[in-house]
Amino acid sequence: MTADTPTMSPTQAEAAKAAKAWPFAEARALQTRLAKMPTDDPERPVLFETGYGPSGLPHIGTFAEVVRTSMVRRAFEVLTGRRTRLICFSDDMDGLRKVPDNVPNPEKLAPFLQMPLSDVPDPFGTHDSFGAHNNSRLQSFLDSFGFEYEFVSATQMYKSGAFDAALLHILANYQAVTNVILPTLGSERQATYSPFLPVCPDTGQVLQAKVIATDIEGGKITYIDPRNSREVEVPVTGGGCKLQWKADWAMRWYALGVDYEMSGKDLIDSVTLSSKIVRVLKGTPPAGFSYELFLDQNGEKISKSKGNGLSVEEWLSYGSPESLALFMYGQPKRAKRLYFDVIPKAVDEYFTHLGKLPEQSLEEGLENPAWHIDLQATDKDAEMPVSFSLLLNLAAVCSAETADELWGYIQSYAPGTTPQTHPHLGQLAGYAVRFYQDRVRPDKKYRAATAEEKTYIADLRAALAELPENAEASDVQSVVYAAGKERYENLRDWFKCLYETMLGQEQGPRMGSFFRLYGLSKSIALCDAVLHDQLVDSD
After folding, report:
1. pTM score, two decimals?
2. What residue ranges define each of the domains in the chain, with the CATH number in brackets?
3. How far is CA 148 from the centre of its chain?
4. By the 8 A CB rule, do 292 and 335 touch?
5. Residues linked to residue 337 through DSSP beta bridges, in sequence order
6. Bridge partners of 88?
7. pLDDT digits (tens, 9 = 90+) for 12-59
8. CA pseudo-torsion sign 196, 201, 206, 207
9. Is the C or the N end of the chain the one with fewer CB within 10 Å?
10. Are 220 and 233 in contact (CB under 8 A)?
């Protein structure tokens, strides 16, 4: 997914100034932000950040945020030539708010509610804590895609003292920081709100407790222990306290010097409040934008509790990582439907973009999504003699059980093509068979052709029989086109007829290419099967 940024030429930087692709627009906005900072050192690496809550496992939203941030990062490097860093920050000092239902022996976690995730035992028994387990899963997840990043743990930063100076700065501006948040709270919550969450010295729990006094010189706060109403004094440094998350986000930006961070549309208000807190601290909030959330196939917001989402693992069962990155690239500020049927289109679109890249000018290439997705792709990778949609329909017609069953057809269509010469095509064949078996076959339903349609299909059969077996796909398509042109005012109805009667689905491939891939003799036999209602009988 990513690679070391190549040496940038002045020509590339000049082209980047005018590039319209959204990562370059974001890069220019970041460049403007830095230009307005009188203390910015052009020799320092510009810092990009993504955040992660380790109460659960990494998901498709995690991938979306990291891959999009990486795209902006690369565009910025091309635009400016500056060095950059990307940190993935885990808020593993957050208290365990509820027991997850997708872990072994969840009842064993109940006694650890409100404990920092880095102090909650690992229910999987593989790490020192639940937070460490999920952090490890996150890093393995990111590493599997080749992302270049630095992992940062909130627990380590708080307890090591790395955040101490920023925490003391917030303590010195306690009332001003509090006043940013208070107008957004109800009257009852206003009475007890404090940006600091004390960590109980006795239980280790992260407490929502009323703070009654601050000691700026001593670096301490005094709170009312909710267990016994006693006054307790704790330091705000060294892990003695954790910040409420909006204040925590702002403190992190300030302490680390974050220059860029994007976030979901649901966090717009939080970004606004955290930015105000950064300004209270006399810092500059990072650049970034709010991306839209995903919808399911019915246009409803994806929810973990509803289970109406599509996981990274599910996507990667049927499509390549690059196709997933392409889906994330397109229009990030627009809500998009994320469901299984978008995968084949994304797979084919990626290779279409990749195939165009070698022939494009520098300016055109910077607008090509494939440029933003994979620096390591070669011209050979772009060679895709058979589209994924064709392979998918071939798998369906053949009722394929393995990818090997497709290779005879592929090699007849594109002689000299093998899994070794075209490994990406080999992967697509595997995806196609799996997608057919899991997503197409269960719902496949052929309809019988009408008597009138059978006369048209009989004419198509006769025309196909006149073609040589090795006819070009374009010539086969012309025959298919001609067979329907005289009978249908809208040729879409003709192709819909072929899809529903021959393929058992409402949509399908370019039929000339499909017949050529399937083989003309077998395609003629397919016409015969429709004419004799054999496919309907096989349902």
Report:
1. 0.91
2. 10-160 (3.40.50.620), 181-243 (2.30.30), 295-374 (no CATH), 383-443 (no CATH), 445-537 (1.10.10)
3. 16
4. yes
5. 295
6. 50, 151
7. 889 999 999 999 999 999 999 999 998 889 999 999 999 998 887 788
8. negative
9. C
10. yes
